[in-house]
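#struct-help
A.M.: can someone run this one for me? Single chain, 224 residues.
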Amino acid sequence: MMPTYNQKIRIIIAEEIELAREGLMLMLDQFEDIELVGIASDGVEAISLAIEWVPTVALLNWDLSRLDGLGCAQEIKRNSQTVRTLIMSNRPVNKALLDSLEHSVDGFLGLNVSGEVLARAIRSLANGQRYLSPEATSALINRVGTTGDKTDKSQTLSRRELEVLQLMSQLDTYNDIAKRLLISENTVRTYVRRILTKLNQPNRTLAVVEGLRRNLIFLDSAEG
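D.P.: on it. Structure tokens below:
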């Protein structure tokens, strides 16, 4: 269940290194809408915490002991589809991560991000969206380009649809997009449905990836 605007986003953190755990805690403590409900030092402990607390978002280091972050995310999803999973790592993006992004992982960030970027990613996931680092996005573009259907079955996007698609890659919520374009949130949702249909994509993340692959929009750096 996604939080409403007056509810806090409940998260758990799974990180082996104590100093890194403390850094994440301090980083997120400044945001009143984010509440830390559990801390794990390995993958197995993270799964137990996720089952016990059913957080909105599970923040997982890829390199956890006993069970790594990707395996942990898969088990968390198997127990509760409502928990959103965010992997953090400085590892190069590989096939295992890309496969996981299609099934059990909802977001990916490098370890050296600011508190603002981390909070933005957590909020995006809490709102049912994906959040990817530029590296992960580029890798997905390459993957779609090499494995996707080479026949272009899409329709041309209107100027307004292109504006919405660009903002989909930059802003967290439909409400943010609506405020930027001075239109209603329902109108934004209508545009998004049209974009998904025209680009022949099943969700917002893949629509943005497809837009980037075709150079319809440009990538606004997710990290900083």
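A.M.: thanks! The mean pLDDT is 87.
D.P.: also worth noting: The two ends are 30 Å apart (CA to CA).
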